[in-house]
Amino acid sequence: MTLDGKTQVYGLVGYPVSHSLSPVFQNKAFQHFSINALYVPFEVKPEDFEKAFLGLKALGVKGVNVTLPHKERALELADFSDPHAKAIGSANTLSFTPEGVHAYNTDWIGFLRAVHKLMPELKGVKTLVLGAGGSARAVVYALRGQGSEVYLWNRTPEKADRLCKELGCEKVSSPQEVLREVELMVNTTSSGLKEQDPPLFDYQLLSPQHKVMDLIYWDTPLLKFAKSLGCPCQNGLDMLLYQGMESFRLWTGLEVPYEVVREAVLEYLQST
User: Fold this and answer.
1) CATH, domain 8-105+239-271, list 3.30.1330.10, 3.40.50.10860, 3.30.750.24, 3.30.2040.10
2) Residue of 71, 123, 165, 227 marked catalytic
3) Which residues contact 69 (CB under 8 A, 6 or more apart)?
4) Which residues, listed in sequence order, are joined to residue 95 by a DSSP beta bridge?
5) Is 117 exposed, middle or buried (0-12, 13-18, 19+ CB in 10 A)?
6) Predicted pLDDT of residue 33
7) What confidence score (pLDDT) does residue 68 get?
8) Would residue 71 show up in a list of annotated catalytic residues for this protein?
């Protein structure tokens, strides 16, 4: 990669971002098409996000992905937003243009492409979603669009109330309340980023009937326990790749092959 005065800058804005694999595969995507561009992580605290947003515009950054905890604020600050981002209430992709900042949500697309590998048919499937942040909103939006019956649990009930009212799901007071009924469980919380994080509920209540997906893109304690019980499981790596591929398409108009980005990530993980 040669950096010069014509190099376009893209990136990831979140807090934290040091664990992110997005720079690995997005830079590979630019290299695959011989685009003079660089994708870098920007770690921004919540209280600094608006200043960072204005700074990215001023510096001429072409586009960024947005991750926890900034997705809802990103939508608020953008000049334009697509219908999916508006309906979800959060944005994970920003494109900076002379006309203004465009906000998109590609999380719901990435989630659907990934979860269909675990469960090809979602219509009528009872699903428990853990969490009520920006990612949860995209997951619920995607599931409801496919006809899934969604239950939602969150530590902060008020946030769950708002999400359920806007996107048409049912709040539960604890995961245990509906575990026997649901077939699919999706963890959208940050619990599991650290091995010592306390469990979200009593994982021993899981059974092989449950299909478990965690948006964190390695095997969290939840997934490890679920696998030990014989549950079909999926981590968030495929969702990460698919949503990133869609962001790349929005920025460049090009569709990078799945095999290219997946191979880049696997090579990186094997070398670290």
Assistant:
1) 3.40.50.10860
2) 71
3) 14, 15, 46, 133, 134
4) 63, 102
5) exposed
6) 97
7) 85
8) yes
